[in-house]
Automatic annotation (TrEMBL), chain A:
Pfam families assigned to the protein according to its UniProt record, in alphabetical order: BolA (PF01722)
Protein name per UniProt: Bola-like protein
Highest taxon in the source lineage: Eukaryota
Native source organism of the sequence: Coemansia brasiliensis
Family: Belongs to the BolA/IbaG family.
Cellular component GO terms, alphabetical: mitochondrial matrix
From TrEMBL, chain B:
Matching PANTHER family: GLUTAREDOXIN FAMILY MEMBER, GLUTAREDOXIN-3
Pfam families listed in its UniProt record: Glutaredoxin
Name of the molecule in the record: Glutaredoxin
GO biological process: intracellular iron ion homeostasis
Amino acid sequence: MLSYFGRLLRIPQPCVAAAGRFVFDAPTATNIVARRLLSVTPSLRMTDGEQQIYNKLSQELQPTKLTVSDASGGCGSMYVVEIEAECFRGLTRVKQTKMVNNLLKEEIKDMHGMRVLCSVPSEQ
Amino acid sequence: KEKVVGRINGVKIAELVDEVNKKCAEANGVSVQQAASASQSKLEQDLNTRLKDLIESAPVMLFIKGTAAQPRCGFSKQIIGLMNEHNIKYGYFDILKDEEVRQGLKEYSDWPTYPQLYIDGELVGGLDIVKEMISSGELMDMVSKESIAA
């Protein structure tokens, strides 16, 4: 337990400053809870690489569902893209994947690999 | 009638699994490597012809890293496994042995990765697409009866 709090106290200032509201003097009840949340909540924000890909695909394909994950632990060498979009309807899987590949030509140059999983929204 | 095709002495699970996979690959997969390297040519015109011939050299054609018996990449290994599991007969080409085909085919088919599966001369896709098509039943529809091993 003590070592857990010790780890909390060592959260670097800049990361905390970004959150804004927390004061880091003595560990009061409030900011211990806050720091615990910061340290155990998985990052909900995308990496820069993920964000770039996400933005481009969102803009160009208007997907109904889209997730972009860096599968290389943040290194940007392997991505997994799951995308559901109306514009894929009627196209072969190869054509769907090529649409995504073509939009990400520049980004792909820096990657070791990319997996693209395309789907079509279920008809309502 | 049953026939002994191999033997592993002792309880060596890993070796047994490898040996079984090798035998399946040998039974179902035919390398088209030799025919390809015999007619090497550096002209781009000939490269496209060469690639087209390679793609059409078997009704079910796989371009993989390594051989069917010894794939050198996890994705290639999985795709071979799927072919064997569904008793599909295929030709295969080891792109690690031919840099010209390795790079040329990516451009020719506008597909950046390996493994690549072609059926009747048409690109079906890579591992992810093949997995999806197997679970939807589409792949088995595309494969003619002649390509299913007895």
